[in-house]
Amino acid sequence: MTKINCIEDQRVRAQKFVPRMFYEYADGGSWAEDTYRANEKDWKKIKFNQKVGVDVGTRETSMNMLGKKLIMPVALSPVGLIGMHRADGEIHAARAAERFGVPFTLSTMSICSLEDVAKNTKEQFWFQLYVMRDREFIGRLIERARNANCSTLVVTVDLPILGNRYKDRNNGLSTPPKMTLKNILNLITKPSWCFEMSKTKRRNFGNVVGHVKGVNDMSSLADWVSSQFDPTLTWDDLAEIRKVWDRKLVIKGILNPEDAESAVSIGADAIVVSNHGGRQLDGAISTVQALCPIVDRVGGRVEVWVDGGIRSGQDILRAIALGANGVMIGRAYLYGLGASGEEGVLQTLNIMLNELDSTMALCGSSNLRDVDKSILCDL
Ligand SMILES: Cc1cc2nc3c(=O)[nH]c(=O)nc-3n(C[C@H](O)[C@H](O)[C@H](O)COP(=O)(O)O)c2cc1C
User: Fold this and answer.
1) Which of 55, 212, 297, 375 would disulfide-bridge 257, Cβ 3.0–4.6 Å?
2) Cβ(252) to ligand 1 under 6 A?
């Protein structure tokens, strides 16, 4: 087996374990995937300013996110269908985050339910909300997040309609996989995944099934989900959510300063500069391009985080140097999970922490809180 040194190694190993349908659900974007690819590429274009002759004998990588001191300023992004990459995947990812000491965000579209994750973890986790048409269901979901002791609600605003993802369409993405000849042939090559999945009962959208009238099986669920994304959602709706959710509120999916300003005006505690990992508006700017104008406009009034294409500790350092207060990671931990479950997610976080720490040393920086644009080259 290949030795794991970096996130790319995790990706390669995950590809071997996870059925194509779910692997490509992760390793893909919308339309031509230009924004998906630009996210990663644009971080790499930013070069570091090597600095020597300074004492970097002790280094501090910790920073606060939402008032909580973290070993590094990273939170796990909400990712749907994690439990299809590994059996009970959300629980494994949440436990790894807990062991490492960073927040885990459970997606609305998770396989394991809110209650299930709460029962199987000790620390508080965050819950991501899609505001769907069925507002009664959304009200109940917020209540369930409160009862599951979630500390933070992350409301995703960049999905008024679902981005067109060709790979998912070609693969006939569904949970569990549809038994087409192509899928059966692929599943034959994934015996370990099949064995793991055969041992769990968690194979459906846990937050939805049994909580929405008339949605009891896969076909009614698929119809419900596709009819539920709400293109009429406005900032007024988000202001209403702010009124009923009295804990920390994060608005995720911001790409321009005006929208960032709106998030501040409804009372968000943090915003995530995000293009949904290049899965929504293809042709949108990469998140690194979007970051600085947003920091300039609302920085200091709200925490500004960024996600999209972050695959290394170097990328974390770049984001902090550009003024972000924290980052979120999606595929980086999903690949770790696909590669080796809970231990794989932990490995992802350790790899990133080590990379962050060493890159700081080589840039002559001993405290992440003091890092600014001076550690980057002005090319
Ligand atoms: C497979 C996959 C599923 C995702 N599902 C969700 C989701 O359910 N809710 C959400 O707000 N964002 C979702 N996202 C977007 C992530 O939260 C995050 O914005 C994105 O993954 C960041 O980019 P990165 O994967 O390059 O780190 C998903 C992303 C991926 C890759």
Assistant:
1) 297
2) yes
User: What's the 331 CA to ligand 1 centre distance in angstroms?
Assistant: 7
Task: Round to whole Å and give the CA distance between 106 and 115.
Answer: 11
Handedness of CA 356, 360, 363, 367 (dihedral sign): positive
Give how far Cα 366 sits from Cα of 53, 58, 315, Å.
Answer: 12, 6, 17
**To test ligand 1's pocket by mutation, which of 110, 112, 279, 280 has the most ligand atoms within 8 angstroms of CB?**
279
276 flagged as catalytic: yes
Taking every pair of C-alpha atoms in the chain, what is the biggest distance, in angstroms? 67
Helix (H) or strand (E) holding 295: helix 287-298
**Total number of domains in the chain:** 1
Rounded average pLDDT over 276-300: 98
Q: What does the alpha-carbon distance between residue 249 and residue 46 come to, in Å, rounded to a whole number?
A: 31
Domain span at residue 67?
7-373
Cα–Cα distance for residue pair 91/111, rounded to 1 Å: 10
Read off the pLDDT of residues 215-248 as tens digits, 9 standing for 90 and up. 766 567 767 877 898 999 999 999 999 999 999 9
Distance between CA atoms of 254 and 307, rounded to whole angstroms? Answer: 10
Q: How far is the CA of 276 from the centre of ligand 1 (A)?
A: 5
Going by the DSSP 8-state scheme, the letter that residue 366 receives in this structure is: S
| 379 domain residue, yes or no | no
Pairing of β 152-156 and β 68-70: unpaired
- The CATH number given to whatever domain includes residue 295 is 3.20.20.70
